[in-house]
Each structure stands twice: as C-alpha cells, then as structure tokens.
Design a protein that fits this description.
The chain is an alpha/beta fold. It contains 5 helices and 7 strands. It starts with a strand and ends in an 11-residue tail after the last strand.
Length: 177
Amino acid sequence: MSQMKRIQTPLTEDNIANLKAGDEVLLSGVILTARDQAHLRMCGLIDQGEELPVDLNGQVVYYCGPAPSKDEPIGSCGPTTSGRMDRFTPPLLAKGMKGMIGKGRRSGELKGIIKKEKAVYFVAPAGAGAYLSKKVKASEVLAFEDLGPEAIRKLTVKDFPLIVAIDMEGRYIYEKM
C-alpha cells in the first residue's frame, strides 16, 4: 500500500513532478468548481479574446456542481464525468490550469495534451459526495452565479482525497502501465 502524498495548491510543475498515475493524494488549498456550462462560457470568452473571470494559473478545476447547505460551507459535492469536459480542456490548460478533478476516463488526445502542458488529472471517489463535502472548509461563488450549482466556486479544501489518473508524464491508470 502506497503512502498518501500531501500536496498544496496552487499546483506547480515542482509539486506535481513526483506524482505518478495511481498515487493517492490528499490535496489542500483552493480549488475551483466548474461544470459543462461554466466551461462553455470560459471557452467562449477565450475565443472572443476576452479575460476570464478567474485566474487559472496553477489552478485545479473540480468538475462538480455542489448541492447547497444551510449549516456547512457546502452540501454534497461529488465528481461529475470528466470526458464531457475534454473538448474544453486544451484552452484552459493553455491559460495555466495545472490540474483537474473528476471521475472516469479522458480521451487519448487529451492525455497527450496533459503531458505537453505538464498538468495532472485526478479522480475523486464517485458516490462519496457527502464525505467529500466534509473536506471543504469554505465556499464562495466567483463567477457565473446565474448558473446555480454550475457556477464557478472557490472551495478551500483540507486533505481532499484523490487518485492521480494521468500524471505529468502521460501515464494513465486506465491503461496497463
């Protein structure tokens, strides 16, 4: 059994260089949530040459549409299927995004782009949204509030459990290594 690796955001090439596909990680710091509609809007802004409403430099984007909560910073916040974001990912990586969190496979083409951009793709435990919400210490809407749960949120997390699915070298847990 491998030992959990602790990493802190923002991500840099230095703090993700030693991560290997299959490594278990506890992530702490700030991450952003964004799903399909937020990705579509961000890519539209990029296509129009406009500024993004958030700085993606060194950022981790969590594919999640969290539920509201009255008593906690956030309600259930499980990962959504990552493959739907594949078409939006290259321009966001080019804007400095260094990590993504979701569930499931990514395209072979995207695996190469993640390697080229020296980024990392993490998977979060599916079906554990209530547990994951306990790792969120603060939540704030940053952009696209009209999208409700799909708005871009800033989450402050502590020991958020993840598995490296695609590392900086392009190794992929869904393929034989």
